[in-house]
Design brief:
The protein has eight helices and two strands. It has 174 residues and is mainly alpha-helical. The radius of gyration is 16 Å and the shape is globular. The two termini are 21 Å apart. One of its GO terms (molecular function) is hydrolase activity.
Length: 174
């Protein structure tokens, strides 16, 4: 079950990444919308309604969740840059996934939203100084973390969900 839920493994932070490692995180963030688009390419509406595991979200819910989660993460990150150790907001992702927009909105809408959001986020990230990444936010679920760790979580979160989609595609032979 854990391999289905966490197909690329659990998050392990890199406490003091090199500039090269940070650039790799940026590159992975830049690739997320395209990798997500590839993961769902050619799937029909009926296929998108399938869950990647028993009790898990449908592929459509995953796509919409990524848009919501990454918008929230972007705001938390900007608050971390502009406020002193802000308490990062959270959201009831389980309940958001049950709202009608997750069912009634085409996945393409959320992918377009992610594309625009990632353009903005990357414009912000590439001009930050190393000291900016030492700033911190406090997450209700993860405790206090630097923006260095937050960006790593951001990168891994999307990769994790894209791997869930690809895992189901492979299992189903799609």
């Amino acid at each position: 079950m854990d391999s289905l839920r966490y197909p690329i493994g659990q998050f392990i932070a890199i406490e003091n990444p090199t500039e090269e490692q940070r650039e790799q995180f940026f590159e992975s963030i830049a690739e997320i919308p395209n990798k997500l688009r590839q993961a769902i390419d050619g799937l029909e509406v009926g296929q998108l309604s399938n869950s990647y595991r028993t009790g898990g979200w449908s592929l459509q819910q995953i796509v919409h969740h990524l848009a919501d989660a990454e918008m929230n993460a972007y705001i938390r990150f900007k608050r971390g840059l502009t406020e002193e150790q802000p308490l990062a907001g959270t959201f009831r992702e389980d309940l958001w996934a049950e709202l009608n927009d997750y069912e009634d909105t085409p996945v393409e809408t959320s992918i377009l939203l992610l594309e625009a959001l990632h353009i903005r986020f990357l414009k912000l990230l590439v001009k930050l100084k190393p000291s900016d990444f030492a700033r911190s936010v406090t997450s209700p679920t993860h405790g206090t973390m630097t923006l260095e760790i937050a960006i790593q979580r951001f990168s891994l979160h999307a990769q994790h969900h894209i791997a869930q989609i690809n895992s189901l595609r492979n299992t189903m032979g799609w």
